[in-house]
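Can you give me the bound-state structure? Components:
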Amino acid sequence: VKLNLKRGLKWLAATAAGAGLLLAMVSWSGLGERWAQRALVRQIERMTGGRVELKQFRFRLSDLRAELTDFTLHGREAEGMKPFFHADALVVDVRVDSLLGRKISLDEVRLVRPQVHVRFDADGRSNVPQPATKRPPGRPWRERLFTVVARRVRLEQGELLYNDVRVPLVAEGGRLDFSLAFHAPASGPDRYEGEFAWQNMVLVARRYLPFSSSVRLKFTLGRDDFELTDFRWNLPQSELRAGARLRSFLKPAWEFRFGGALDLLDLKQILRKPNSPAGRVDFDGRGSWAQGELALSGTYQARQIAMPYQWFHAAGIESRGSFRVARRRLEIPDFEARLLGGRVRGRVEMQFEGVKFRVTSRAEGLSVARVLAAVANPSFPLETLHWNGIMEVDSVTTWDHDFKNVATRGLSLWKPEGEFAPGEIPASARLDFDYSVSRRSVALRQSEVVTPSSRLEMDGRLGARDSALEIRLRADDLLPWNELINRLRGRDAEPKRIAGRAEWRGRLLGEVGAPQFEGQVRGSEVSYGRLGWSEVAGEVSYSPAELRLSCFRARRGRSSAALDLYLQLTRWSFLPENQWELALRFNDAPTDELQELLDWRYPVRGLLTARLRGRGTRADPEFGGPFELTQVEGYGFRAESARGELGLRTDELRLAGVQIQGHGGRLGGSLLYRFNEQEIAFDADARDIALERVEWLQSPRLPLGGRLSFRLEGRGPLAAPEADGTLRLADFRAGGETLGTLEGRLHSRGRAARAELRSAMATGTLDGQLELQLVGDYPLRGHVQFVDFDLHPFVQAGLRLKVSGEARARGRVTIEGPLRQPRQLEVVAELEKIAFDYQTLKFENVGPLQIAYRNEQVNIAQAEIRGPETDLKITGGIRLAEQRALNLRLSGSVNLKVLSGFLPELDARGVARLNTAIDGTLAQPRVVGGIRLEDASANYGDFPAGLSHLTGDFVFDSSRLVFENVRAEAGGGQMVLGGTVNYGASPLRFDLNLQAARVRVRYPPGMSWLAGGRLRLAGTPQGALLSGRVLVERALLGEGFDLGSLIVASREGVSVPATGSPFLRNLQFDVEAASVPNALLELASGRFEAEAQLRVRGTWERPIFLGHIHLAAGEMRFRGNRYRLSRGDILFSNPLLIDPEMDIEATTTVQQYEVTLNFSGRASRLSLAYRSDPPLPASDVIALLALGRTGEESELRRSGTTETAGSGAAMLLSEAISSQLGGRIERLFGISRFRFDPLVGGSTTSPNSLARITIEQQVAPDFLITYSTDVNSTEQQVIQVEYNLRRNLSIVALRDKNGTFGLDVKFRQRFK
Amino acid sequence: VKAAATVWLLLLFLLARGAAAQVVVDRIVAKIEDDVITLSEMREQAQFERLVEGKAGEPDTLLRRLIEQWVVRAEIEAARFPRPAEADVARALQQLESTAASPAEFWRRAEALGLSREAVRRAVERQIWFLRYVEYKFRPTVVIDAAQLQRFYDQEFAPALQREGRPVPPLAEVESQIQEVLVQKEIQARMERWLEEARQRLRIEPVRSAEQP
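Here's the bound-state model for the whole set.
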């Protein structure tokens, strides 16, 4: 067995080796491939029934690849015709799935230039090969011809020809299953049955994006028919289903059905059209194609369509409809779409001939806002207008092919209806449009858009090349246009607020891409950002090449600017190299308004007249011209005028021939400044500038005066120019006193400047010099020395002394330190002598007085002042920084008169001995020590009582001044003063009391009271209360004090003359005053016994009395009559003003009449009753009292047109007014004899109906002329002359208004 | 002598012819800014003064008035101040007519002076218009305080009445009238100041010395 096995193995190995050798020989010799080629050809011919040509067959065993070169399968075509199938190469990779199981498969199949040619002749014969069958007769027979499964298939550069129709055949894909069987039924024609499925097939066609899809289909192909039973094509997002049947190739008539869902995203990607709509369309239908005629019918429904075009972008569009194609014409008769809040219905037609479309549509209920948003784009952001409403559009639109030659015309109507979101503006419109792509224009006929605040009218043509559109835009409010204008200005531009009213009337011309706007613009109350004009108007021309403003005027208030402007533009932009020209004119324009107009902020005011011109390029502008400024105010200066020539260029500013006149002097000069080099050249020459009129130099305390002249020239770097100048201040006055003349010189050379000062004073001298380094912190060093320098004005201002006198000083002041650091400056004043001589105050220093300022601290090294009754030593210092700490020592004696220097109303005399130390801060000083007065006196302004023999101690205890044992005499009585003044906290507070006996007080003016009691004064200097109780023994009303006047004046409340003292003005009263029994009230013209119980409230200037006064008896003289007081009561009950209730009766005798007057009622409405014995009429009683005679002769006055008492005043004032008016008329028109009131008029048809003037003149005691005239008529004049011959006889001559003269003789006789 | 007389007569004849030939129809008497004042305007002003006043101002005075009228008119037109109503002008004309014995007499005089109805009406309208504008311009800016009222009352009003022996009403009674007097005075002062300043500010060039028109 072993031997056999071994022998068997050897045999097997030899056999294998022999077989291998055989195979190698076969392969090497090519015998195998030829054998395989023949076998393959035979097999294919058997399967297809066609004839096969194969140029070469190669099989590589190494990679199991079979290559067929020039493979041709001939069908039943005639000789010379294209074969049924041909491929330049067919490469098949074979994979051995199982060697043992003998299972192999195709891994990849590649066909190079495959060409399939299917042709059907007119007799129905085709070139499709027919396999030879071994069909059993009479029986159905079916044979699977082949089943091909390949994992990967590539068709390269292939094509399918069906008769003459060429279809590219280029694809590659994944698994391909193709099986074909031949079926011969028992009866009927035999046919092929095939199934084809190809997954992940990638079709490559033209320029389209290769896309992956899967296709699956089943078909049957008979001798004369073809049926596609199930065709499905799945694209990435879409699916297409179809079935088709061709009943006879002889009469090719296709019937087909189709359906599917098309996602437009697939088209977008495959057709490489990113800007195509998105959405999904479901469709189905059926149709036929026969004899070149296509017939289709079906329905479609589109959902969520989004249009992405720049001029139309909207989403959420829905559409549906049914379509039919017949006779080379497509119709959608019921086209419907829902979009933009509304609905579009219409009819779509397309002729295949020329692919011409026509859409007749009507849109309803479209939202204007959504339509504007859909057509808005960055270059035309219509949505920013926020218009809304309901839109209707009737239109007919035509185009051909792929939206070529689009033309649409129709009418769009907007109605301001529907719901409006906040901020939306109702808009209505009528747009009659005709748009044509071929003409490249849209015509708008009599179209308009109207909103509540604007109206836009258009008429004409807007064309790509030749626009001619008349536009009129009127906007009552520009605010709603703000957003649009700001967006058009560009997203980078800072948004501006644009408001006001504007109107544009003009036209748009030229190419729409580069339009030219021409027209007039007019605006009122227009504002642009912070700029504002009450009116702007002018001609505007605006195009990509230029902006031109002609005759343009801007007005604001009384300012107006006229300008002509030309800007060369390059495609709308003003580039640095573009030219420009400007002419700007102002006439007496107030600079305040002008600055607001131009958004400038310079602290200069005046009236500007200027003719400025500019030109050049943007990069190199040139601007300037003559200007004149009048009534100039600025920087504390006033000037009558300033004129000159301004020149401004990129690199320099030039002011030439500047002449400023003002302050009684003039300043001339010029300035040149070069920006880049920072170099300056200037000269200034001023003559006789009055310091009095330089406001910022003035202060009420220390007014300065003099005539300033200076000359200054310089040039060089701005930081360190070389300059020379002189200064002269002639008649320098301080505080009304002429000090003399000051002269100075200035030299500046580079980094150093030196100033010298000399004086020519009336008395004394002052000179000095200063050196300033123009580097670093500007170190300053210098000194001023003075001899007999007049300090009076400075003493008055600094110490607020208000007395005349003189003060002189001799000494030296040195200054050193950095000018930029004022705190580090050191100033030392060494006064050898300082003397004050003010009336009775005479002081001077003993020994040198040194005051130094260092580090914000003023130190008085030593100061001793001596004078009559005064010897005061002062040492210490004041810190000027932080809380301003004090550290002063005062000791010695002071003449109290010095106080009157500070308080002019205080007349204080005597000597105060003091020894005090002051520390704390300037705001809250603390004083320790005391002042003692002996036999001093004090009187204060209007205060009704003065103090004499004032003696006592005033003790400071840190924050209070305590009155200790202070006694004085006032008004002849004794007073004891006590209390405290608290000065430690601000404000100063006091609480003083006094006890007085029989003190005489004069208040109010003209009255004198003898009274005593206790009073308390408490409060602050800003508000104090005087309270207490006084007992009045006697009141005296002096000469000039008129009780009648007081009573009459009390209608307005009794008031006393205003006081200049703030303290008295704020002083309030709460004083109880009572009279002793039978106290006397004395008047210059009489005296009464009175009893009073009053309370005085109110203020110094407006006192209030409450209580009553009873007048017991007395008498007085009044207007020459002597009155006896019968009774009298005066009750003060009004707590707001003095308006006493009076009941006073007095009797007098005139001639033989006893006249009794009774005043009763409140003083403000006092009624006066007269009676006489014997009785007389009231008017006669008045005349009797006033004139000493009865009043019969007053008839004319009483019955006249004016009241006699007031006629004089009225006439005087009327004359005064008339005189002013007349002066005006005379000045302007040279007319003095004819006047009328220019303000009379209006609705009154009879002006001056009341303008009757009556003039009465008492020529002599018994001769009276009365003249009365109506200003409207020279004829209505009344002249009356009255002459009283005797008391009861008079002659009256009268010319009445009709010109008639009359004469009356009057005789009066009184009968008892 | 005869020859000399002949020469003189011939000379006089020629001068007369020359003078007759140089009838001045109109000419510019002054330039103001970009505007002019003509002799005819000056003549019209003079004749209106003669009509109303009986005499006319000197040429320089007339020119000054016309310049000041120009100032007012320039500002009125710039301010677009409304013209007076026709009824107001008619009323003023009626008042003006009443200065004569009868309206007919008035117009006869006007015609004799070479003034048409329209010229008179224009002058009256201008007068109302300008005066109203002056009021409008200055009145709002005038503020009278109590101290001024009191000063006028004390220093001018009361002494004037007292000199005539008339009663002096209290200030409260005449306060409003005094206020008006002071306002008018201030308006007058301001107007004069304004006109003076304007005259200095404006570019005014008399073309030649104005003749008596």
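A couple of observations. The two ends of chain B are 40 Å apart (CA to CA). Residues 83 and 126 of chain B are 8 Å apart (CA to CA).
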